[in-house]
Task: structure prediction
Amino acid sequence: MSKAKVVFVCQSCGTTSARWLGRCPGCEAWNTLVEERATKSGAAESKARAVETVLLSDAPAQAEHKDHRTSTKISELDRVLGGGLVEGSVVLLGGEPGMGKSTLLLQALANISGPTLYVSGEESVEQVAGRARRLGVASDRLRILCSNTLQEALDALHTQKPKVAVIDSLQTLADDALESAPGSVSQVREVGHRLARIAKSDGLALFLVGHVNKDGALAGPKVVEHLVDVVLYFDSEAGDGLRILRAHKNRFGAVSEVGIFEMAESGLIPVTNPSERFLSERSAQQPGSVITAQLNGTRPILAEVQALCVPTPFGMPRRTALGVDPNRVALLLAVLERCAGMDVLGQDVFVNAAGGLRLTEPSSDVAIALAVASSVRRRAVDAKVCAIGEVGLTGEIRRVARVEQRVEEARRLGFTRVLVPEGNAARLDSKGVVPVGTLKQALMAAGLE
Result:
């Protein structure tokens, strides 16, 4: 009998090697190659078969209108998905243990108007039912299967034909045809591929729950993410019981959308007014605090930028940035030094986006610069001032997109003065709008010059 062929597969990136190596040649991680039995691929056909193709002009387009999506009746989840679940889509939901992934999906399944299936490889039927009762979730259309075998999950999907299904989790299911352990790269690849194939063929909307490894990424990230249509991450950076749901990949909507939830005894509750929530604990009239408005997908959210500048006791000043790009902070410090004559390069500078939001847009530049200047001057900016604009290297303030929505959100929350770039001011109602063309003008408008 011939010896079975084995390969060594990296558990981080999926790279295969004919022999064991201490360091993966793909991702260069140490001690991640694990021995697995190679699977035999089917023999190639010697004669080419005729394959039917379709002209692009004759192919039916997938309906993108929101009316053709299935709503989960959870507003924040629907927002991040792009308006609801698309038929035949595969959604990967990742996050650290305890974030509420299973809770959110159990709530979503109970809201679906149609047959649904929850496949759990980590809990028993009694545990899932007990959690559903604690959450007040009741549905006569939701069925539960507890199994670690891929074939049983596929059989249930074929026979029950649910409208929406959840696999919790991807790393707990195993294909008996493979000898590798559940959760290995080869198992995750095969399980994910077969589940995605049945979702596409049967028009099933499928949620896959993914574990997070010690580096904070989904286990086997490239192997999994290439198989699915949507990748969502759950985290709790906002603290205070808040959970933030972010889209890192979305074939049916914007990846910049975020969903915000609050963890309560009754489950995850959508936060429909995040601006008010993030500003609720703001200390008014404190130096180093300025409000800005950034767009997360289609929704403007007001966020507080905090800065603290202190003389450095060391030769090399520290630069610490949380929730904002450290490179942009360094750029703004140099512009403040050169264009505003402010001594900041010799101080330790700490910048923070309060509440756990990430300010990824350049539109927060003016707010960051004003917060730093406020801390240096030890002079508070008026609590009713909101600053919007991108700062250039010569100190000019450049226009930003969709400024009307940002200004409207600031007015709704009671801000009486909104600093905007001069290039945007002509399209706005002048009430409460302060056009600024340079950083020096912005400092003067904020009372810091």
Summary: The chain has three domains: 6-37, 68-272, 277-445. Residues 133 and 438 are 58 Å apart (CA to CA).
